[in-house]
Amino acid sequence: MAHYVIMGCGRVGVSLAHTLDNAGHTVAVIDQDERAFRRLRHTFTGRKVTGVGFDRVTLKEAGIEEAYAFAAVSSGDNSNILATRVARETFHVPHVVARIYDPGRAEIYQRLGIPTVAAVRWSADQVLRRILPEQSINGDFRESSGRLILGELSLHQGWLGTTLSGIEQAANVRIAYVTRFGEGILPRPDTSYQQGDVLHAMMNVERTSEISRILSVAPARENQ
Are 53 and 59 in contact, with CB atoms under 8 Å apart? Predict the structure, then answer.
């Protein structure tokens, strides 16, 4: 089980907190307004920390130094981005994600290496996809026989700069499209994996664990 820190106790934050708590993870929720914690069910076992989510003292109180992931889902774009950068750059949290309300800022945030989720109906599910270890491959579609699945790939930073064809060859998958700066693009033979890209690939269902293992580590030199 892992420790998660969530900034923002609104609808999305509460949904994340309850889901992670149900899964047996330890959770700390940060919010400036102590009254926001009333949204949490009475059986919630996590920590409730009142304070500013990008304040280092507040983050330490929430257990950021032991956190597997940090999710900033408050109502303020700037606060979410600032808190996420502090979590990643100061406390070196391996998995971070920021919820944003202005899709026009997505390109800037992605270039900073900060995964973002737009404020849409399924944003809680999208956040979970980026912070849960068991969600390293997320199925969005299965063909009729059930043997093939279309899902997101989670790659080690060492794959940055690798051509998509090289990734396909190494993992034995077929990359269908790439989400880059919030927009879907069709890959070309010379397209390379860039910071912030989300790769969507067709793969054999029975190989998802193997694919996850291959892509979770830096590639061998010949695959680059």
Answer: yes
